[in-house]
Amino acid sequence: MFTLICVLISAVLIIELAGCGTILYPERKGQKDGRIDPGIAVLDGLGLLLFIIPGVIAFAVDFTTGAIYLPGGSRKSSMFLEDEKRVVVRVNPKELSEDVIEEVVRRETGSQARFDLTHVELQVLNSPQEIETKLAEAKKSGYSNY
Fold first, then answer.
1. Are the C-beta atoms of 23 and 66 separated by less than 8 Å?
2. What are 11-37's pLDDT values in tens digits?
3. Long-range contacts, 82-87 (Cβ 8 Å, 24+)
4. Going by fewer Cβ within 10 Å, which terminus of the chain is more open, N or C?
5. What's 68's DSSP letter?
6. Nearest CA to 88 among 50, 46, 131?
């Protein structure tokens, strides 16, 4: 009987730990605010129902790290901070490819990041002044963190 109770308690604690948004979505760490992910909130809430302390800890960790928020909210590691300068790079649209984009980003930022551009949306800009407008539209739509 004791072994069964130990196994049950271990299983519940493992399920509660897995319900923590920080473990399920580590890429969300660093978000400051946004819409709360109902799935993570429910999993954290189940922890409150089963065991008060692990549930409170799960909520505290998820809110502190930002993992409870859906993607698309503000991030501490946002590419454009308000006081940073934006750089406009002109590239012939006919020459655009993943390799060209990666090279431009590497040259301008020093980042060695690889990109998956299968879901990229291109925007034609007629003037540099349109950049702020397009970024604001993307932010309002929830499409971008910028």
1. no
2. 766 666 655 787 788 888 877 778 888
3. 86/131
4. N
5. T
6. 131
